[in-house]
Amino acid sequence: MTQTLDRPGSDVESRVGAWVSSFQDALSARDVAAAVSLFADECYWRDLVSFTWNIATVEGRDEVADLLTTVLDRVDPANFAVDGEPTSADGVDEAWLTFETAAGRGTGHVRLKDGKAWTLLTTLDELKGYEENRRERRPFGTEHGANPARVTWKETREQEAEELGYTRQPEVVIIGGGQGGIALAARLRQLGVPAIVIERNERPGDSWRKRYKSLALHDPVWYDHLPYIPFPENWPVFAPKDKLGDWLEMYTRVMEINYWGSTAAESATFDEAEDRWTVTVQRDRGDGPEEVVLRPRQLVFAMGVSGKPNRPTFPGMETFRGEIQHSSEHAGPAGYEGKKIVVIGSNNSAFDICGAAWEVGADVTMVQRSSTHIIKSDTLMELGLGSLYSEQAVANGIDTRTADLVFASLPYRIMADFQRPTYDEAKVRDKEFYDKLREAGFALDFGDDDSGLFMKYLRRGSGYYIDVGAAQLVADGEVKLVNGQVQEFTETGVRLTDGTELEADLVVLATGYRSMITSVADIIGEEMAQRVGKVWGLGSDTTKDPGPWEGEQRNMWKPTQQRNLWFHGGNLHQSRHYSLYLALQLKARQEGLDTPVYKLQPSHHEE
């Protein structure tokens, strides 16, 4: 696409400046009609907490009017101003904004078409009076002068570890100690919100260490930084699982996170009158498990995108003489050199497992049950991520926060339109690769609407593979491929519905995971889980993401139908970015700020 950029100081500054000035004037005058008139007929306003105490998108002028009519007096937005130099390309003016509300300060982004707002992003950066102790507000770290009652940092941390959860209750309990729980706990620490992370594994990072041997990040380093401490400049582009595990463990210590490893959450009930949870956990500090009852006000589940392993059962499993593993249990192909391995599934884990098994000389067969989207890693890096998350982007002045906000500024309703050209170009660039995959019998797709990887991830969290080499093995026939559905297990292998029989010493069920709510229900109970509804998905009416349209990730990082219950997680990018907005919501409630939620999401249950 050819872009024509206006020069700084040209008409784009006048157009954007006039819009921002008119918008602020309308807001200050509480003139909803005047404010709405500044939006195009097709328009989208995405708000991350600042106006709505929610993560919500309104679409069209009528919904913009409803938002402003509902919240304008309370929010009291002020000082909207352009931050930096606006740009213009292909008839769209863009600008970064700063603004304030009664509660805090924020960042905005606007896209104008013909002088009217097409997209508007507003985000809450900090709460007034409760700013993080960073930069000029950083703690002093020591006490100068003589003091016989001096308490050292080490003594303070040891006292906190002894008291928190026992003689002093946390404000927040986070169940799940992967990157999501760790990132959120780091944010809360900087905001002065006492929190405990509950994790079944012994050490931070074990959720990565205990996966199959070949696992590594498929997302590049620039996309994966955690809050406050970016990866060093010599960090590998794609971090191996054990290296990432060590980083998470280091990060947890340096950021002073109260991390309870070897601890299992057994139950959680909410007392409406006291506005508190009762969370019962079994904690093992090295001398056997002890029951601990925690009484936080806020409960966060940070268990990734997925819940329980999706472990299908087939007739004859009990007669199979080999071994059956779900991908979550598979440690790698050691011991299966020269033996037959059947992998049921054709997404990320299936490909990784097949590739590692082929490398040790196993006879590997992949069973593809439904079509899969594949994008080469190099292609994704260059076409899909490079403009925002790459060394070149950094050289161009696009830091991680800016990249995150650019991505956040695209409403989900139209994000597919922005994604589709990337995958159209990938089809041309990698035509020979895709042709060879199809010739091998692989069922390939690019999403229901050809919008590719990110939309599949956002809509359903499955159905794709970022190729780092294993897809080429399938295309070349080095990893055998069969298409179909499993009918039953036999003593010696697997039989498909078309009669095909596959001999196996090991069958790996790379069949994915169920919704996060399935694991949560074991702790909060089925009734409360039903009240909350499905976690993840947009309601796009595409495969595995049935409507109605929500326009945001269902129940993620925002209030739910159960008061004081929250969900956090996703990939490293989402764990980093959205941890800020969830932390600010939790801090506001700790301090007793008025937090009326606009557009609380209804329950939804279809998978």
From TrEMBL:
<dbReference type="Pfam" id="PF07992">
    <property type="entry name" value="Pyr_redox_2"/>
</dbReference>
<dbReference type="InterPro" id="IPR032710">
    <property type="entry name" value="NTF2-like_dom_sf"/>
</dbReference>
<keyword id="KW-0560">Oxidoreductase</keyword>
<protein>
    <submittedName>
        <fullName>NAD(P)-binding domain-containing protein</fullName>
    </submittedName>
</protein>
<dbReference type="InterPro" id="IPR050982">
    <property type="entry name" value="Auxin_biosynth/cation_transpt"/>
</dbReference>
<dbReference type="InterPro" id="IPR036188">
    <property type="entry name" value="FAD/NAD-bd_sf"/>
</dbReference>
<dbReference type="InterPro" id="IPR023753">
    <property type="entry name" value="FAD/NAD-binding_dom"/>
</dbReference>
<feature type="domain" description="FAD/NAD(P)-binding">
    <location>
        <begin position="171"/>
        <end position="402"/>
    </location>
</feature>
